[in-house]
Amino acid sequence: MRRFEPLSGPAMPMQLLKRLCEAQLPMAFIDDEDIAKCGVLAATKLIELRPRRFDCQTLMWVSAPTASWFLYRFRRPLRKRWPAATRWKKQMNNMLSLKSPARGFTALVVAFMVGCGGGGGGGLDPILGTPPVASVVGPVVTSTSPTGSNPPVSGVATNSRVVATFSKPMAAPSLNAASFTLACPAGTSTSATVSYDAATRAATLTPATALPPNTLCVATVTTAAQDTTGLALASNFVWSFRTGALADTTRPNVIVVVPAAAAGNVPTNTKITATFNEDMNPASLAGSSFVVTNTALGTPVAGNVSYSVANRTATFTPSSPATLALNSPFTATITAGATDSAGNALAGNTAVAPNSGNHVWAFTTGATADTTPPTVTLINPVSGATNVCRTQSINATFSEPMDGTTFDATTFRVTDNGVAVAGVVSYDSVSQVASFNPVGATGFSAGASLVVTIASGSAGVKDLAGNALATDRTWNFTTSAQSCAPVVDLQTVAGFGAFGGAAGVTNQGVNTIINGHLGTTAACTLMTGFHDASNVYTETPLNIGGVNGTIFCAPPAPGTTTTLAIATQARADALAAYNTLAAMPAGSDPGAGQLGGLVLLPAVYTAAGGTFAITTGDLTLDAQGNPDASWVFQSAAELTVGLPAVPRRVFLINGAKAANVFWQVGSAARIEDGSSMIGTIIAPAGVTISTAGQTLQTTLTGRAIGLTASVTMVNTTIVAP
Predict the structure, then answer these.
(1) Residue after which a domain boundary falls, among 180, 209, 243
(2) 3-class SS of residue 292
(3) d(CA 453, CA 376)
(4) Which of 11, 203, 365, 677 is least enclosed by beta carbons within 10 angstroms?
(5) 212 within domain boundaries
């Protein structure tokens, strides 16, 4: 490779810099790591300039550790031709691209830490203005599992792995038991092994033994962790989480796929994604566990598989060719080789619970590609908002499914008086909402004036077809001095799909599936019509219910003192949550007890007459783009969803989540057959789902918890969010 020689003399003249800024030059992007291999200062942006009035051919903006400008000159040997662009790229390891210049031209490489301003997605700071922070940037932790949040997440399974994902390719040897540590409890080192998966840029810490229950744990990635160019983290990255009482024995599920199952006229240039209901093991999602097949030809599609820890989403990107065949049927498969962070294999949609199995879906392409850019349809907080609580996440809802891998701290930026705010960026495929969560212990600064930018253009966010946001989306708001009110903490009962107080749980029908644990403080003989991976609880040929989790109950066998203790703690946590919900200040009753046909914003709602019903129509819960939004419904007596032969549904829109919907019922709750209910129902007198003899499937995305009385169900699907 030819050698770059420093020029002597003063720094580059300001006039030349000014002219370069006015030239409106096209930009291409190259990788820091590759440029470093060439012996040039680590570069981030390359600008090609055709010979004009300047004695130069190529100008390159590179990262510099100081504010100095470095000028390099490449001298062409006399009477020799410049290498062709393709040969040059090969020689430069696919990093630089030069056009053959006229005789006598000189190639200049200019290295400095500021560049020309520009519009679109990621214009540079003006040369003649205030210089920004130097762009030589080391790696940062972009997401973690368990999630780092304020307050720390709780109920983390005791057999969980801990994962940190990075912004750049990392040097695997630098990620080890010394640079990635876990203290559980805080201050007490936990023995563990550390591995690094280059495909997902994820480091995984696997504890040698189960973590202690109900314990605050602290994970740390130190500055000893380095990227492949030798740059280290600027500071230690630390986050906390609290374990629950239980190990995770529930199999993961695929909750949304793009393209959707049975979709037609799918754009030929789309990526294929699958999003899971819990954190997955990144190393288990690879080309062997995510396969796309051209059904007509019976041949697999060549492609690459990636997994986003922050988004819980696996992405299949076709390659060779980069588009799918037009007007063709395809089958996508996530195999049972995909496991969650605790090692549980995928439940899938091809196996009977509690067995593992593949998740399979089909779609058909159309005749065209997708060339329509996405748009931002909702933002939260709204532009100009004031007194926003400090731990509030920042959210943007998009018009179509997005490529979650294009969301990070460079494409979803938040600044406080011009200074970048540290945060974790994620994208939710279900709601099409991207979120920025501050990582500071107390959230954003009090009284901060924050500016949010979602980047457009080639370096911005994109949809699954690769179409970029057309223009930057920018807005601002100011914070208050207060933290946001926390969502109700269910603690250990959060892992249960149903809990039958001290009276048990009963199933009738052969189509019942519980995705979560099942429990009661009563004897195991009062758990009827169910089986988990280890035991069968009084099933008959007409009463079979699969539990994708574990059944906890009191002796006799299979109940033990240990399973009873777990059930007892879960009931105590459910009671505490019930009391917290009941103690909240009373809210409005917009439908005089009738919620059917209403669209409700996040709030506390209290039944003035003591009962709530969803019988005259469906209920819609609108989060207005805020996935942190919560709903609490307080009724002193009963809750009724649907009528016999008249099923009703609850819909979630604009980012609303089932995990943030709570029903505090003073007596009993009933969900009629065929209905689709959302939220955690806690009722002292129990919960009844459907009617004996019914074959319509009834769905609860939430939890059915009886504090004292039983829970009964018929052909029911429960998914604990």
Answers:
(1) 243
(2) strand
(3) 12
(4) 11
(5) yes
pLDDT mean by block of 10 residues, the chain; 721 residues:
35 39 36 35 32 31 30 34 39 36 32 34 37 61 86 88 94 97 95 94 96 94 96 93 90 96 97 96 93 97 93 94 96 97 94 93 97 97 96 96 93 94 91 91 91 97 98 97 89 95 97 96 98 96 95 97 96 97 97 98 97 98 95 98 96 96 98 98 98 94 98 97 91
- Both 625 and 527 in one domain: the answer is yes
The CATH number of the domain where 422 resides is what? 2.60.40.3710
Identity at 149, one-letter amino acid code: S
- Report which DSSP code applies to 539: -
**556 and 613 in a common domain:** yes
Helix, coil or strand: residue 580: helix
Cβ atoms 499, 527 nearer than 8 A: no
Edge-to-edge strand ranges of the sheet holding 58-62? 27-29, 43-48, 58-62
pLDDT at 136: 61
Closest CA to 690 of 715, 673, 668, 707: 673
- The pTM assigned to this predicted structure is 0.76
CATH number at residue 328: 2.60.40.1220
Q: Are 191 and 154 in a shared domain?
A: yes
Domain span including residue 406? 376-479
**DSSP designation for 91:** H
- Give residues with Cβ within 8 angstroms of 302, minimum separation 6: 318, 319, 320
Instruction: Answer whether residue 136 is part of any domain.
Output: no
Please tell me the distance from the alpha carbon of residue 57 to that of residue 50, in angstroms, as a whole number: 6
For residues 24 and 92, membership in a common domain is answered with: yes
The whole-angstrom separation of Cα 650 and Cα 701 is: 10
Three-state SS letters, 294-326: ECCCCEECCEEEEEECCCCEEEEEECCCCCCCC
Is 125 within a domain?
A: no
Q: Is 30 left (phi over 0), alpha (psi -120 to 50) or beta?
A: beta
Contact 315, 259 (CB under 8 A): no
Query: What is the rounded CA–CA span in Å between residue 721 and residue 704?
Result: 12
Which runs of consecutive H residues, i.e. helices, occur in 472-545? Answer: none
CA distances for 469 relative to 372, 374, 454, 600, angstroms: 9, 6, 9, 31
Distance from C-alpha of 441 to C-alpha of 419, rounded to nearest angstrom: 18
Instruction: Please identify, among 187, 208, 243, the residue that sits at the C-terminal boundary of a domain.
Output: 243
How many Cβ atoms are within 10 Å of 285's Cβ, its own excluded? 28
Provide the token pair at 482: 């207060």
Per DSSP, the residues of 36-65 read: HHTTSPPEEEEEE--SSSSS-SEEEEE--S
Measured CA to CA, the distance from residue 643 to residue 675 in angstroms comes to 9
Q: In terms of domains, do 543 and 658 share one? A: yes
CA atoms within 13 A on the CB side of 632: 20
On whether both 423 and 498 belong to a single domain, the answer is no
In a domain, 329, yes or no: yes
| Pairing between β-strand 631-635 and β-strand 661-665 as defined by DSSP bridges | parallel
Q: Where are the alpha helices (DSSP H) in 23-172?
A: 32-37, 85-91
Residue with tokens 């239980």: 246
The contacts found for 51-55 with CB under 8 angstroms, 24 or more apart, are: 51/101, 51/102, 51/105, 52/23, 53/19, 54/16, 54/19, 54/20, 55/105, 55/106, 55/108
Structurally, how many domains does the chain consist of?
A: 5
Residues 576 and 686 in one domain: yes
